[in-house]
Design a protein that fits this description.
The protein is α+β, with helices and mostly antiparallel strands. It has three domains: about 1-90, Orthogonal Bundle (Annexin V, domain 1), CATH 1.10.220.150; about 135-250, Roll (PH-domain like), CATH 2.30.29.30; about 260-379, PH-domain like, CATH 2.30.29.30. It is built from ten helices and 17 strands. Helix 1 runs parallel beside helix 3 (about 70-80). The longest helix has 22 residues, at about 220-240. The radius of gyration is 24 Å and the shape is globular. The relative contact order is 0.08. Zinc ion binds near residues 25, 30, 48 and 102. It is found in: Cytoplasm.
């Protein structure tokens, strides 16, 4: 009798699990989740289940394959599931709020899960959230330019002034740096910075890229800063482009880098010795640095669209000299010249080619024509 009842239960569990609405992790979108929370009624992936396990007051998780599920728990999953949970916990997400995917770092995914289920930030419309009022002030640890040490610095974000500032001294009246909000890109870089909550802020000064590297011990605080910057940027874009749709605004907000890593490069004569550099592809800007944590890019290359004479090719032009120690070459062709790079491995080479191809395949926007013109002027 008992075995028969178990079989029926397992069958019922499989049926709910197989519903199309439960085909992706409720929190990061990864296909084929095989864990579930029996207090929230959501189907989630293994990595997200690890985060849920750390919030036991809210969520209790089990493996759908390995653990025993009793009838009441299966019924609960049946009545809930990812669609019902989404309608409740994700009902009112501000357009600027960053919803992480499976590829994002731990702190972003953890704070997203806590914001949804623990703090219930998105269940009610128009809630006053710690990142939604257009003003944020506080201390962040900023890496010094000379010795690489992290020091506490006062930061101020202002929607009214459209900028992010930081101050060298707590009581200083004048900011050390005043960054225009529309030039900022921020990305979490735990590995590169060597801190789990490490945040890189990239901005333009005189149309040149500058980096600052920050962190805060508290995961909520650093993610609040991240979303506060996005919120001020969304406000700026709405004022600048009043007819833009929410999706257009979203697509213009800060973005992840398409790819980062070491390559070797040679100079414009293509006879100079190849030098190892750290490269960052931030949409159409390919920047290179001597060290991944440098404040200033040593140089930048604009990567336009295919219809405008840009392409990427595997390999180096025949007879390339200059001495390179890495053997997986690639060439970026622009209307003005060719850029030669080498990668350490074939998979790195293929990843870079794929990243460049993605950018080159997209048509250029009017703003990007202006940036291209600037690059041409200054080169
Ligand atoms: Zn997940």
């Amino acid at each position: 009798m008992m075995a028969e009842k178990d079989d029926k239960n397992i069958k019922a569990l499989r049926e709910v699990w197989r519903r199309p609405e439960n085909a992706l992790c409720a929190d990061c979108g990864k296909p084929d989740p095989d864990w579930a929370s029996y207090t929230l009624g959501v189907f989630i992936c293994l990595r997200c289940s690890g985060i849920h396990r750390n919030i036991p007051g809210i969520s209790k998780v089990k493996s759908l394959r390995m653990d025993h599920w009793d009838e009441a728990q299966v019924q609960f999953l049946k009545q809930h599931g990812n669609a019902v949970a989404k309608a409740m916990y994700e009902a009112h997400i501000p357009i600027y709020y960053y919803q992480p995917t499976h590829d994002d770092c731990h702190v972003l995914r953890e704070q997203w899960i806590r914001a949804k289920y623990e703090r219930k930030e998105f269940t009610q419309p128009g809630r006053q959230l710690p990142y939604s009022n257009g003003l944020k002030e506080g201390i962040l640890w900023k890496q010094g330019r000379d010795n690489g040490q992290f020091l506490p610095r006062k930061f101020l974000l202002s929607e009214r002034e459209g900028c992010l500032k930081y101050f060298a001294k707590q009581d200083a009246k004048e900011p050390k740096i005043n960054i225009k909000i529309d030039t900022i890109n921020a990305t979490f870089q735990p590995v590169k910075i060597g801190k789990p909550n490490g945040l890189q802020i990239t901005y333009l000064k005189d149309n040149k890229t500058r980096n600052i590297f920050l962190y805060h011990e508290d995961g909520k605080e650093i993610v609040d800063w991240f979303n506060a910057i996005r919120s001020v940027q969304a406000h700026y874009l709405k004022v600048a482009f009043p007819v833009a749709s929410d999706n257009e605004i979203k697509s213009r907000l800060m973005r992840n880098f398409l790819k980062e890593g070491y390559m070797e490069k040679t100079g414009p004569k293509q006879r100079e010795a190849f030098k190892k550099r750290w490269f960052t592809l931030d949409h159409r800007r390919l920047m290179y640095f001597k060290d991944p944590l440098d404040a200033f890019a040593k140089g930048e290359v604009f990567v336009g669209s295919g219809e405008h004479g840009y392409s990427v090719k595997q390999g180096l032009p025949p007879g390339t000299q200059g001495g390179f120690s890495w053997h997986y070459g690639l060439t970026i062709v622009t209307p003005d010249r060719e850029y030669l790079f080498t990668c350490e491995t074939e998979s790195e080479q293929q990843d870079w080619i794929a990243a460049f191809s993605r950018v080159i395949e997209q048509p250029m926007t009017p703003q990007e024509y202006a940036i291209e013109a600037y690059f041409k002027l200054s080169s």
